[in-house]
Design a protein that fits this description.
Layout (H helix, E strand, L loop, with lengths): L1 H22 L5 H48 L24 H32 L4 H25 L3 H24 L1
Helix pairs in contact: 1-2, 2-4, 3-4, 3-5, 4-5
Length: 189
């Protein structure tokens, strides 16, 4: 049970660290990475403690902490005195400006289907590893179902924070390679 308590504390601290990092004026990628790492570490600690149930219990303080952060931010936000503009920023280009539709479409393709494929490959590789090492079929399946959206959301954030396309392709390639090779190796056995 100590692992679950430690995991719960780590996930709540990770949310507070994420909130702090997002509130800074400059992009704090190392701080964001540390927060996401702490979140994953907390969930792993919950899983070590009591399997899928421990992960679910460690997720509760994380969600409560996120709700509290949002409630405080909403309650303390100043009211706008000026009415919001009807034109959405960069929704449509002004007359004579290029639309960059190709770049926007590529960003969508990188962050949605390709990032999902990379996250799924990594989650399936972890499932294969758990099944091979006696983790149990049910725990392996639940872990895969839990990790896929978690890894996908983390990967989307990292991809959108990347400044260059080359960095984005590397961020996609590493999980695909790390996750894809064990899957291929496992199916060839």
């Amino acid at each position: 049970m100590a692992w679950v308590w430690a995991g719960s504390a780590m996930t709540a601290a990770a949310v507070l660290l994420l909130r702090h990092a997002w509130g800074l004026r400059v992009r704090a990628v190392p701080l964001l990475g540390a927060a996401w790492g702490l979140l994953i570490l907390g969930l792993v600690a919950g899983g070590i403690g009591h399997g899928a149930w421990g992960v679910a219990v460690a997720s509760l303080p994380m969600m409560l902490c996120a709700f509290a952060c949002l409630a405080v931010a909403g309650w303390t936000a100043p009211r706008d005195k000026v009415r919001a503009s009807q034109r959405r920023a960069h929704m449509l280009p002004d007359a004579g400006e290029p639309s960059y539709i190709g770049r926007r479409l590529l960003t969508f393709l990188i962050t949605v289907p390709l990032a999902l494929a990379a996250s799924l490959a990594l989650a399936l590789a972890i499932r294969l590893w758990m099944s091979a090492n006696g983790g149990g079929e049910a725990n392996a399946n639940v872990t895969t179902l839990f990790l896929t959206p978690l890894l996908w959301s983390v990967l989307i954030v990292l991809l959108l924070l990347a400044r260059r396309r080359r960095t984005q392709w590397l961020m996609l390639g590493v999980p695909l390679l790390v996750g894809g090779l064990p899957i291929l190796w496992g199916t060839m056995l």
